[in-house]
Design goal:
Blueprint: E1 4-11, E2 20-24, E3 30-33, H1 42-45, E4 61-63, H2 69-72, H3 75-80, E5 86-89, H4 91-115, H5 123-132, E6 133-135, E7 142-144, E8 147-153, E9 161-167, E10 170-174, E11 197-201, H6 212-229, E12 232-236, H7 242-255, E13 264-267, H8 269-280, H9 287-294, E14 305-307, H10 311-317, E15 324-328, H11 338-345, E16 352-355, H12 364-369, E17 374-377, E18 380-383, E19 387-390, H13 400-408, E20 416-420, H14 424-438, E21 442-443, E22 450-454
Helix pairs in contact: 4-8, 13-14
Length: 455
């Protein structure tokens, strides 16, 4: 007998961030996938304080696909609003999420004081979330009522997963964010073969990245040119995955004498702590990375690299004589230590700001990417004279062709694809290609929209 499931897109629809999807069985289980922070400027971020559009206390289980803030950031708020169910992810995702949640707690407290608004949750809610949190290895099947579930490797960041649910013989896959495979450190994204419904990310649904050798060549070129001019190379760092991949790549360049040796600073306490988690879970790296480590090479350390944990160490960097490289949070320049370095060096035509990942609408990184000539940093107007460089190939997200390849692995079974976690232009472009080239029903749902899945 045919029945239906209700799927509601409470976040991450029509925008990249704020992933939050609710799947409901009639008179049965309520399953939430991700509960992320909405990012992209004050207008959006105020939404993070709003009550949820559903009753958190009625949700049985929350699957967390990975530890990025836009997938975990509102979990403490969910707890504060009454959620008492189980939280499921891989072990590395829980480790990373703990750091991310505690780090964002401090930022939220500063914002609350500055704007004179109440906190949406407190530190007790963060610790309550961690007590409810269970870890699950990849490909280990478990049951929840009439559902069977397992986690598949998404290849996006360490521990990232796709959630595969089977109900009444039908398979539903929530991809979370999908890795730009093959990647320097992580294993390739697994296949979604056999999926009937696919809820998939679409950040780069309308474009492709540079070729992998081209991105390394571009990185090497940006480093060499900035050093030659005697400037500072600033890299806004996404603390999870991008930082570790860049350390890996620059380590190889330094050890093989392909770039001049200059001081380099990893100026991000969060990225330093996340790097320790990466080292803890080296068994999840791909074979190539594991073999390099086995040979005795510390892939996250090389001559000239200094980790700066303390605030005074960070301030001292700007007294360093150029040329040098500084990698600091945050990845979209919407806060963090990178903004202090930008304040000092964006006005220098010999310096370079290198953007190496997606820059959300409304962020300082996006304004710089779009060619802003003046920006305000810590209350001061700064003329932008530095070179603004962009390498999209270091994105941890699949590009358009990679996304289409993933859909193709389940082309013979798919009933419908929902393109989410992308700006409308990217999502709609991917929808059109899936329809035109594969003949599969595809849509880009709106936030708050509900659909029924026939099972």
């Amino acid at each position: 007998m045919q029945s239906t499931l209700k799927l509601t897109f409470h976040g991450g629809a029509g925008r990249v961030t704020g992933a939050n999807f609710l799947l409901e069985e009639p008179d049965g289980a309520k399953i939430l996938v991700d509960c992320g922070m909405i990012q992209g400027g004050k207008l959006y971020e105020d939404l993070n304080r709003e009550p949820f559009a559903y009753d958190p206390s009625s949700v049985d289980i929350l699957f967390v696909t990975h530890g990025h803030l836009d997938h975990v950031g509102r979990i403490p708020h969910l707890i504060h609003q009454g959620f008492k169910g189980r939280i499921i992810s891989t072990e590395p995702t829980k480790d990373i999420a703990e750091l991310i949640l505690l780090d964002s707690m401090g930022i939220l407290e500063k914002e609350s004081r500055y704007n004179n608004v109440p906190m949406p949750y407190d530190e007790d809610d963060v610790h309550s979330a961690l007590r409810l949190w269970e870890t699950l290895p990849y490909r280990e099947k478990r049951e929840l009522g009439n559902f069977t579930y397992e986690l598949l490797d998404a290849g996006h960041i360490l521990g990232s997963s796709m959630v595969r649910l089977v109900y009444a013989g039908k398979t539903i896959v929530f991809t979370g964010d999908l890795g730009n495979s093959p990647a320097p450190l992580l294993k390739d994204t697994e296949s979604v073969q056999g999926a009937n419904y696919l809820i998939m990310e679409s950040v780069y649904g309308d474009r492709n990245h540079e070729e992998r050798q081209e991105r390394k060549r571009l990185l090497e070129s940006v480093i060499e040119e900035t050093i030659k001019k005697g400037g500072v190379l600033m890299i806004p760092a996404f603390s999870v995955e991008r930082t570790q991949v860049l350390l890996y790549e620059i380590n190889e360049m330094v050890e093989n004498g392909r770039i001049p040796r200059v001081p380099m600073f990893l100026d991000s306490p969060l990225a330093i702590k996340v790097t320790k988690i990466y080292k803890k879970h080296e068994k999840l790296f791909n074979q190539g990375a594991r073999e390099i480590i086995k040979s005795g090479d510390d892939i996250f350390r090389f001559p000239g690299l200094k980790y700066t944990l303390e605030t005074e160490e960070s301030k001292a960097i700007n007294r360093e004589k150029p040329p040098y490289i500084v990698m600091a949070g945050s990845g979209m320049s919407n806060g963090g230590r990178i903004t202090h370095h930008e304040k000092h060096h964006l006005g220098d035509p010999n310096s370079t700001l290198l953007l190496i990942g997606y820059q959300a609408a409304g962020t300082l990184g996006r304004r710089l990417q779009d060619g802003a000539k003046k920006v305000t940093l810590h209350g001061e107007t700064v003329d932008v004279r530095a070179r603004i460089a962009n390498i999209s190939g270091y994105s941890a997200h699949k590009d358009r062709d990679g996304l289409l390849e993933l859909v193709n692995t389940a082309a013979d079974t798919l009933s419908q694809v929902f393109c989410v976690m992308g700006e409308p232009k990217s999502s709609l472009s991917l929808v059109q290609r899936i329809r035109d080239y594969m003949g599969i029903r595809a849509t880009a749902p709106r936030e708050g929209e509900s659909v029924t899945l026939d099972v």
